[in-house]
Structures are given as C-alpha cells and as structure tokens.
Design brief:
mainly alpha; 77% helix; 283 residues; single chain
C-alpha cells in the first residue's frame, strides 16, 4: 500500500492581501471606486472634526488678508477714502489666492501622513490608489469653499457688491474651485516627492510668492514695469483673478475664463497621473 504525500506551496512574501493590494485596483469598477472615495472623504472629514484647529487657516486667512489689503493698500491704489472700490477689485483676486494657499497645505499633509504610516495602511488595502488622493482633494476643496464663503462675507461687510447676475458669482466660485483642485495635484506630487513637510512648505513658498505678487490679484498690472507685465500676462493666477473679477462685476470676460480652464485641465492631466504613480511606488 503506497502513500501519497502532498506538500503545500511555501508561502511567499506576496500573500493574498498583497496580491489584492497590487492588482485590486484594476478590478475595481467606477461604483466601487466612488464608494471608496466616499468612505475616505468621511474619514478625512471626521479627522478635521476631531482636530478643529486644522481649520484655523481656513477661517482666519481670508479675514486677515482681506482686512490687510483693503485698509493698507486700498487707499494707495484706489485713493484715500475710496477703499470700497478696491474691495470689488481685490476680493475676486483673493478667491484665486485661497486655492493656492490651501493647496500648499495638501502637500504638507500628504507628506506627514506618509511619515506617520497612514498612507502605508491605505496602500495595503484592496482599494484604488487614486481614491486615496482624490478623497484628499475633495476634502480640501470643501475647506476651500469654507474659506471663500468667509472671504465673501467679509467682502460684503466692507462694501463688496455683485454688479451682475448672481450666477456670475457662482461661476467665479466654481472656476476658482476647478483651478484650485489642479494646483492641489501639484502639491500632492511635491508632498510625495520631497522628504519632509518643511521641504514641501519651503518649495511651495518659492512658487507661491512670485505667482501671487506677480499677478493682477492685488494691483492692476498697468502700474508694473514692462518685464513684470509680461510675466503677469502669462501668469495663470492673473487669468483666474481677471475672470472672477469680470464675472462678479458684470464686465467682459474676454478669454480669461477659457485660458483658466485650459490651464486647469493641462495641470491636472500632467500632475494627477504622476502623483498616483508616485503614490504607488513610494517607499
């Protein structure tokens, strides 16, 4: 009587969980992907609820910037005692700036999550890698909407007036959100590439300062030297500020809306796949 001996294959480092984590994304349909994004958005929102101090920048930044620029620079630009006219100029521009400043926080947050091991736990789960980053963007867009709402509230208190249809205001907000989301992908990529949150913040400031102050956000480009006017003309923040300003003040928008949308789509098309790829490969 013979006996048959069966042997089980030796376990490998790539067990079922690892295989699911590696190949699961390809089997996840749109419905499942949306469900994962929703769950991660809820998780990130609950994290904000547990740490309300993380909303301080969203609450106080629009108040401080609006008061600072209206009362410090408004008289110099629009004439003493004529700050109300400057409010209608600067508040739409500050809507563009909100997206950039909040986008910077996305990069430092992603970098910090990797250092704490949070992202490693997400990568071990059978979920789409893109859903982790998209959920982060969605929550930050929510924070951006809160900042814009506070900005507009302060603006109305200082004399902001909507000279055109209310629809123009909502279109300006939507355009700011689209462009802000594209910027967030840049900073997500920086957060995944650079080693420390301090490095992300430092790099962000090097990018933000020239773009913000070399634009039409705070002052008309006509007062700038010729070489700076040329930079301002190609600055996407200028196009967004001009588009938001025209929509709110019922002025001709020209090509500023379409140029802003093209910038937004181009930035997202380049940086989003790179960020998702870097998220998969980051060690």
């Amino acid at each position: 009587m013979s006996t048959v001996t069966t042997t089980k294959p030796a376990p490998t480092a790539a067990g079922p969980a690892s295989v699911a984590a590696t190949h699961g994304e390809g089997r996840i349909g749109l419905r499942g992907n949306l469900r994962h994004i929703g769950a991660l958005v809820r998780r990130n929102a609950l994290q904000i609820k547990q740490d309300p101090e993380s909303m301080f920048d969203v609450v106080f930044m629009p108040i401080i910037f609006t008061l600072l620029f209206v009362f410090v620079f408004g008289g110099a630009i629009s004439g003493k005692g004529n700050q109300a006219a400057y409010v209608n100029y600067v508040v739409p521009g500050l809507m563009a700036m909100m997206g950039m400043n909040i986008a910077m926080g996305v990069g430092t947050g992603v970098n910090d999550d990797f250092k704490k091991g949070v992202m490693d736990r997400f990568r071990s789960m059978p979920i789409a890698r893109s859903s982790v980053l998209i959920a982060k963007i969605v929550v930050e867009l929510g924070r951006m909407m809160v900042a814009i709402a506070i900005l507009l509230a302060v603006g109305f208190l200082l004399g902001l007036s909507i000279k055109g249809p209310v629809l123009g205001l909502f279109l300006a907000i939507g355009l700011s959100a689209v462009f802000g989301a594209s910027l967030m992908w840049i900073f997500v990529l920086l957060g995944l590439t650079l080693k420390t949150p301090q490095a992300v913040q430092g790099m962000a400031m090097m990018v933000l300062m020239p773009l913000q102050f070399g634009s039409s956000i705070f002052a008309p480009p006509t007062t700038m030297p010729g070489w700076l006017q040329s930079f301002t003309d190609y600055n996407p923040l200028s196009n967004l500020a001009d588009a938001a300003r025209a929509l709110i003040n019922d002025a001709p928008v020209g090509n500023s809306v379409w140029v802003t949308l093209v910038w937004s789509l181009a930035i997202t098309a380049v940086t989003m796949p790179l960020a998702v790829r870097k998220f998969r490969q980051k060690t």
